[in-house]
Amino acid sequence: MSLDVDPPEPPELAAVDPNEYEDAEVAGGEYRRDDLEEFLREGAWEEAFDEWAAGSDMDEDDWRIAVDLGLVSRFDFFWDDFADRVGYHAPGLPEDWKERDLHPDLDSWGTVSAINAGLTELGQIVCETLKEEYIDWEADFDAPDDLPDFET
Q1: Out of 26, 33, 83, 110, which could bridge 18 as a Cys pair, Cβ 3.0 to 4.6 Å?
Q2: Taking the domains of the chain in order of start, what are their residue ranges?
Q3: One matching Pfam family, short form (predicted)?
């Protein structure tokens, strides 16, 4: 499948400690959000979005709901120096979406799942694009000298 929509503006990255997210555990405190946000504006976001949209299972109706709810602007990306990777937090719809009446066209678990899975996939592709095409720095983490030697 393919999603034929224009890329939205890249998200502005907030100064949130990534450890506050339920789905992230990050060591270190230098998240390099300013650098990442600049890379997103310089083309990483659009490049990753186009790659994602070309193979996305989301349809235009799912995407419109995600945009209407402002989900795309709530992405967060951060540098995880310990793991030498770009980490991310993808926004999503809560389990109580039905009780909260979030959007008039949000009417099935299938739609909720498609939106949540689609945004997660977009976040992963953005991270890969940033790491492979834009980031030229090395992790500052140095392993301690007293780690066991597992050579055989």
Answers
A1: 26
A2: 1-151
A3: DUF7992
